[in-house]
Amino acid sequence: MTRGKIFAGLALAAVGALSVTWRMTRDDEIPRRPIDRSTVVVLGDSITEGGDWSHLLPEQEVANRGYSGFTTAQLVAVSQDVARSKPAVVYLLAGTNDIRDGRSPEWSERHLERILDHFRQAAPETTVVVQTVFPRSDAVDEVTRLNDTIVALAASRNLPLLDLHPIFDDGNGGLRPAETTDGIHLTDVGYEKWAEVLRTHVDETNYSPRPGESDRSQAS
Fold it and tell me: In what order do the strands lie in the sheet with 40-44?
C-alpha cells in the first residue's frame, strides 16, 4: 500500500469518527421522538431538522429525523433504521446537499432508490411521501434537474409526491425573503407554510395506525 493510500485511509477514518461524534451531539440537542407504527416521520437534512415539529404539527406524533448537512447517501443508513420501526408515514426531503457537493441528479437518484428500497422491503405498509427540493436562487438549474428526477422517481414507484418547489418559488427560482433565513433554510413563516402543506396531506391521506401494533423502538 502506498503512503498516499495510507494517508487517505486515515483521513477517511478521522472523518468517520468526527461524524459519529457530531451526530451524537446533534441527537442530544434535537428532540428525537421514538418511532412506532402510528408515527409520522419527517426525514431529511437540516431543512427538516430545523422544524419544531411538535409545535408545527401538534395533532400528530411526529418524529424528527432530519440531520444537518446530510446528503442522500448519508440518509441511506438513517432510512434503514427508520424502516425497521415501520412508521405510519414518512415525508422524505433530500438532495439540496447533493447539489452543494456538485453531485449529479443520477447520483442522488441512486441513493434515493436505496432509501425507498429499505421501506419497500422492511416496511411495506409505511406510506412514503416524496417531496421535491425547495427553490435555491444560487442553483436554479441544478434544482430543476434534480426535481425532474425526483418527480419521475416517485411516478415510477407509484409513490405520493408533494411538489414543494412551485409552492415556495418566488417566481425566479428562489425562496421568498419572508420564508428564508439565507436562501436555503426556512424562517418560522416558511415552516408554518410547509406544515400546512403536510397537515393537508395527512388529512387527505386519512392514514390510521395498524391496530394492536404499539411496540416502540428508537430509530436514528
Answer: 62-66, 40-44, 89-93, 127-131, 161-162
Which of 151-155, 169-173, 197-201 comes out lowest in average pLDDT?
Answer: 197-201
217 domain-assigned: no
Whether residues 59 and 167 share a domain: the answer is yes
Alpha-carbon torsion, ordered 197, 62, 38, 71, to 10 deg: 80
- Confidence at residue 202, expressed as pLDDT on a 0 to 100 scale: 86
- Let me know: does 151 contact 161? Beta carbons within 8 Å: yes
What kind and span of H or E run contains 43? strand 40-44
Host domain of residue 80: 33-205
Q: Return the closest-CA partner of residue 157 out of 100, 102, 112, 205.
A: 112
pTM of the predicted structure, to 2 decimals: 0.83
Half-sphere exposure of 161 (CA within 13 A, CB side): 18
Beta bridge partners of 43: 65, 92
Measure the CA dihedral 131/67/55/184, to 10°.
-60
Please write the tens of the pLDDT for every residue from 14-66.
Answer: 334 333 333 444 555 677 889 999 999 999 999 999 999 999 999 999 999 99
Domain membership flag for residue 210: no
